[in-house]
Automatic annotation (TrEMBL):
It comes from the Bacteria. Coiled coil: none annotated. It comes from Saccharopolyspora hirsuta. InterPro entries: Polyketide_cyclase/dehydratase (IPR019587), START-like_dom_sf (IPR023393). Gene3D superfamilies: 3.30.530.20. The lineage of its organism: Bacteria, Bacillati, Actinomycetota, Actinomycetes, Pseudonocardiales. It holds the Pfam family Polyketide_cyc2. This is Polyketide cyclase. SUPFAM superfamilies: Bet v1-like.
Amino acid sequence: MTSSSQPPHIVTSHREIAASAERIFELIADPAQQPRWDGNDNLAEAAEGQRVRAVGEVFTVTLTVGSVRENRVVEFEEGRRIAWLPSEPGAQPPGHLWRWELEPAGAGRTKVTHTYDWSRLTDENRLPRARATTADRLRASLDRLAELAES
């Protein structure tokens, strides 16, 4: 049983963005674009040419601290949904998941839902960082994404 003082293990934030789902999805599904909108200021760079197109693909990013993460795509529907499990290169994912869901919300508008799910996180060293990933942090990514997509 979890006490109410503990943060939830699944954190979600959403907002409407004045851009098409296709435009927004391109910014999410292309890892080279992700550092531009990362509200956690965790991503330094990702190589060009890794645009995700299917479940099972793996893309790599370099974090601001210099380490590399492999991201295994576990959910994918073009223009609608993408989710991945990050891990250290060659290692099994420790169980935290990043998910993006896009839903048309009228002419030229899209409701975007960003979720961080650490309910299956097994690496105790990652728990403090997971607990610190709040809806406000997710919202920062959504706001930066909106700024890029709407410009």
